[in-house]
């Protein structure tokens, strides 16, 4: 009996050891498979924690130059991401379009456009419902809110023409570093005077009276009658990548190569190999991202003014935007994903989380594009013909978070000014915010520029944009994260709905490694049904 009891005890102890070793093995496997996500999340939280400890726990003040030094590693990381944007967008779209036949590319394009405009319109409607319900600007005095910076005058017609003009750049090489923009430039007072008057020999000015006769108006009278400011439209190229022009060119160029048959094969092989080389470079950059994200967040927090006062002044406005973005991100988009794919959105969220954290740190959906591509392809096994066709276009025109923010901000400014919006104004804001977000470049704070278009559409004061600039640095990061999440959900839905169309087509992306940089094989079965 004693021997049996001893054997039983030994068996129980060995069982416990086996269970413990099994748990350690599972934990170790999970950590290895999700190492990048763990590092990114740790760096993000550390950046926030260290920043607030220094900001609130010490009396240290930093100059702009010192903050630039602190943020320097993050700046290098951001520059390295921007460095690969142009070759990645051009090569991926060319190969993606060249690999699809006319029917398949047309279907993918229609599905992508339908998804983009549907989700953007849903985001705008959600934002309008929330801001009309919460009414964060009602009863607020503009003098109580700190203004920051100055507003930028934008002519709505010129902005639309610039959008169309940039879609067809005159020089595709120059489009890599130049974009056309029309600005509203203030006319000097002396020039305004000369424009409005006709100098007479008497030194006075002719003025038409009510009965049709003329009278002399002196300079003092003219100065009194002159408007305070007048603007003229001045167009020209500025130093910024014309991503929209590159996207349009690459799509058409890739489609033509695909229709050239054997003559186009050398170009397809070249761009394919070029793209895979860029993706391997992206893999190296990705593993440096935790360091870059830490310093980007740290520098931004240390550069804040009085954040507590800011949130007190426009706290309800910020809360309204955050609630809207949260509902769109965690309810609307996952629900759409479940309806069209019947799969678990939590697994999908986990796979794309490196891109979402990078989007929050960089506040640029274009700069995040390389990591978004890598996350979907390696972590979630989305077909590369879909990701490399859909994501570059989505990063350019699909801006759910920006559209929601613009709708909320416009109505908030209307409420602060006691401007009563009727149904026509609300519909105008909805349509304008949806279309203006399409023209918003995937760069930091581009939404502020397109905001002017929305305000002009309903006659709201453009100068009041300065009321919300003070908190825009934070909200910009939040809405960029939602933009990237929306692009990712769209790629997953389009892939699931296009499998039948892609089955009979050859896959040109067959020279990459199968294991990837993220250890995708450790994510479990992505195809698990709900």
What would a concise description of this structure say?
This protein has about 525 residues and is mainly alpha-helical. The chain is built from 22 helices and 4 strands.
Protein architecture, described:
- The protein is mostly helical.
- The chain has one domain: Sodium:dicarboxylate symporter (Proton glutamate symport protein).
- 68% of the residues lie in helices and 5% in strands.
Write the SSE topology:
Elements: H1 2-33, H2 35-57, H3 64-70, H4 72-83, H5 85-98, H6 102-134, H7 156-167, E1 178-186, H8 189-196, E2 205-208, E3 214-217, H9 219-225, E4 231-239, H10 243-258, H11 265-286, H12 289-302, H13 307-313, H14 315-341, H15 345-362, H16 365-379, H17 384-397, H18 400-416, H19 423-438, H20 446-457, H21 469-497, H22 499-503
Antiparallel strand pairs: 1-4, 2-3
Helix pairs in contact: 2-12, 2-15, 4-12, 5-10, 5-11, 5-17, 6-14, 6-17, 6-18, 6-19, 6-21, 14-18, 14-21, 15-16, 15-21, 16-17, 16-21, 17-21, 18-19, 18-20, 18-21, 19-20
Chain-averaged pLDDT: 78
The oligomeric status of these chains comes to single chain
Looking at the structure, the CATH topology is Proton glutamate symport protein
**Percent in helix:** 55-70%
Q: Give the number of domains.
A: 1
Characteristic key phrases:
5% strand, 530 residues, 22 helices, Proton glutamate symport protein, two-stranded antiparallel sheet, globular, mainly alpha
